[in-house]
Amino acid sequence: MKTKLVQNLSVNLFQLILNQIFGLGIFYVLSTGLDKDSFGKINLALALLLAVFNILSFGIDQLVIKKIAAGEHVPSVVSLYISHVIFTGFLFYGLLLSGTIFFPHANSVYSIILLIGIGKLMIFFSTPFKQAANGLEKFRLLGYMSIISNLVRCCGLIVLALLHNLGIVNIILIFICGDMTELLLSIYLFRSSTKIRLNIKWDRINYFKLLKEAWPQTGVVLITSALARFDWLFIGFMVSAIKLAEYSFAYKVFEISTLPLLAIAPLLIPRFTKLFQQDIIPVAKLKFLVRMEMIIAALVGLLLNICWSPVIDKITSGKYGAINVKTIFILSLCMPFLYLNNFLWTINFAKGRLKMILASFIITFLVNVTGDVLLIPFFKNEGAAFAFLAACIVQTIFYIRKNDIPELNNIWHSLVICISYALFSGSIIKILFENKWQAIPLAVILYILPLFTTKQLRVKDWKSLRYLFN
Fold first, then answer.
1. Are 202 and 246 in the same domain?
2. What is the 3-state secondary structure (H, E, C) of the chain?
């Protein structure tokens, strides 16, 4: 019989695969059906709105998961968060809408932001139900809530493409319909699945108590939201929508390639929260998990670079492949650092070290912004990718230096070894093969074999993996 962790991982991985398929369908239709300028403007609007609504969560979303996983009263916690999203969501959109009074002749980007903002507001209103499902470890319910918007948008855009009616207005209407459907379905599924009845009312004392508790995490969210999309916004406003279209395409594929991380990350917060409430911490299991993550991350980065030009140039008719080779290479180097940073962040978040986490993100943000400002004007998209890589490296160094579990101080060894072997394998393949498809099996072999010789990968790891899930 499958353990609960395996079931949760399977469900979460399944919904992520579906979401990535639908998201890839959306991205493909828009990137190939629109000119680069229009595609860049839509991505600029989405980047700005996603950053703003992430900031408006004030970090309460992650705190809700932790509180529910720790056994606090679910209706009270969720009701407070619903009150928060309703208040802050309407306040932000009201301010956004008032801009039409002061700027009646605003440009096309502002109009796109205003319209897409309606849909993103609906997604924001649905977050309390998703976070509650996450905290309750009801990942099947979370999966249903999470895929509906992308499903509606993907199907709608495919229909528009087949009808040759892929205009900006029609695209935005499809986006709004998908986001509205997700909100309505989330409310219905949460009530029918959990049987929890929410009594939403303004509780000033407990609300401000929640805000105070979330304050350090609010700073983290503010910085991570800016960090995640500052490069997009800087390129879009300071360079051109066309360059943003190219960069956002590479970054989107890079995000999709982090699917294994996306699958396991939501499971770690409730698991680690319970784990660090125990007296004895299974350090060996944690080190094994890091080692497996590093091996997977570097392998995915290797395959991404080998397949990039042949695949992307073919499916986009040469629009986004060769021009992004250097960008995707730099971004792929970030992948192992993202895995390790997520692992260390989850440990510190579960242990309540929110001020230390805030300090890490402040430093990371400053490095990334400084890199963007200095490098993007000269190196365009490659400069943005390198600034992101530098920020990831600095954050890893900070987390390891502040680590308070001595047995985990040397986990960076696996990161360096796996990246080195991936670079070695990729370099050999580039020298020996022109047809990259034929090179994939050899690339994997050249990457895997040295891992066995340095004991990063062992035959008995299969048993350890089964033991970890049990």
1. no
2. CCCHHHHHHHHHHHHHHHHHHHHHHHHHHHHHHCCHHHHHHHHHHHHHHHHHHHHHCCCHHHHHHHHHHCCCCHHHHHHHHHHHHHHHHHHHHHHHHHHHHHCCCCCHHHHHHHHHHHHHHHHHHHHHHHHHHHHCCCHHHHHHHHHHHHHHHHHHHHHHHHCCCCCHHHHHHHHHHHHHHHHHHHHHHHHHHHCCCCCCCCCHHHHHHHHHHHHHHHHHHHHHHHHHHHHHHHHHHHCCHHHHHHHHHHHHHHHHHCHHHHHHHHHHHHHHHHHCCCCCCCHHHHHHHHHHHHHHHHHHHHHHHHHHHHHHHHHCCCCCCHHHHHHHHHHHHHHHHHHHHHHHHHHHHHCCCHHHHHHHHHHHHHHHHHHHHHHHHHHHHHHHHHHHHHHHHHHHHHHHHHCCCHHHCCCHHHHHHHHHHHHHHHHHHHHHCCCHHHHHHHHHHHHHHHHHHCCCCCCCHHHHHHHHHC
Task: Output 111 or 382, whichever has higher pLDDT.
Answer: 382
Residues 41 and 156 in one domain: yes
The per-residue pLDDT for range 174-209, each reduced to its tens digit, is: 989 988 998 898 888 888 887 777 777 777 777 777
Q: Are residues 326 and 201 in the same domain?
A: no
Per cent of the chain over pLDDT 90 is: 16
- Indicate the number of domains in the chain: 2
Answer yes or no: do 193 and 123 share one domain. Answer: yes
**Can you give the residue range of the structural domain that contains 100?**
1-215
Write the pLDDT tens digit of every residue in 39-84: 888 888 888 888 888 888 777 777 777 777 777 777 777 788 888 8
The verdict on 179 and 255 lying in the same domain is no
